[in-house]
Structure formats: C-alpha cells, structure tokens
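Here comes just one.
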Amino acid sequence: MDLKKILPVFSYIFHPIFISVYGALFYFLITQNFFYPNQIYVMLVQITIITLLLPLSIYFLFRSLGLVTSFTEAPIKERRMPIAIQAVLLLVLLRFSVSKEITVELYYFFIGALISAVLSLTSVLLNFKCSLHMIGITALTAFIYGLSVYYKLPFVSLFAFCIVCMGLVASSRLYMKAHTYTELVVGLLIGLLPQLFLYRFWL
C-alpha cells in the first residue's frame, strides 16, 4: 500500500469543520451517564448544525459566488471570511447551546476553539497562513487527553492513535503542498496552548 496515495484522505477526515463534532461525540461518550438521552441528542444536533452544517452551507454559497476555490487548500485571501464566520458561530454556540454550568468541560473546549479561531484570524490578517488542520487535530487530541486524565480513564491507546493522526495530518498537508513546516508548527501551538491553558479551569 502506497501511504502517499492515501495521505490526502486524512485532510478530509480531520478537516477542521468536523473537529467540534468529534470532540462533542467523545465528550458525551464518556459522560453519557450524567445526562438524559434527550439532552445529549439535542446538544449534538445543535453542535452539528452550528459547527458543521451551517459552515458547509456557507462554503458552498461562497464557492458558487467564486469567493473560495478549495475545501482543503484555501489561500490566505480566502481564509479571512470563513475563519471570521467560524468565530461568530462559536460565539453563538457558547451563548445559546453549550452551558458552563451543565457541560463545563465541553464549554471550555469550545472556548479554546474560539481563542484558536481568533489567533488564526489574526495570523491571516498578518499575512501568515497557519495550518487550520493542525489546529483542529491538536485541539482535539489535547481535549481527549484532558478528559482522560480528569476522569481517570485508561485511554492510552486512543491518545496514541490521536498522536499518530496528528503526524498523518501533518504529512498530508506537506504532501499536498498546502503548508510549510513552520505553518504546521504554528498551527499545532495555536491548537494546543489554549486547550492546555483552559484545562486548568476545569481540572
């Protein structure tokens, strides 16, 4: 099997647009005993609509208008509006859907995502293209690690799998010539540091 031929697949599987749903699914997988099934269902639907379906709809609208040209390899000038919209949608999610009192860990996960979105938007305005894919997969890995430690769950294999996925995503971005090593490292830091910092608030 030629790994290089399947590397681009990881850019789609771990596209930033899916990370919020992945994080929410993992969260409710390990905390399901603390919620009624209807609560979980409603929350997942809200998160899916706000962080996945709405951004996808906006992407196809922008594509039809010629404002964006690629789902995985957008140049700097095409990143400003989508990232700004992502930040606004995360604010909406935090304001109306994810409660600090009910789902504290998930709340801080999305606060970290919002901080990462603002930092990535700042980098774009400064004409620097950090890797959104690395931001997403790194934030998800940090969140999984934090939950595993907090709830004392033996998810060593899952955490190791996430580390491998980080490497595959980075390799995918390099193979597709979408990013440089520096852009990948900056993306990793933007995704990791907010999650680690906020982890201290719900530890």
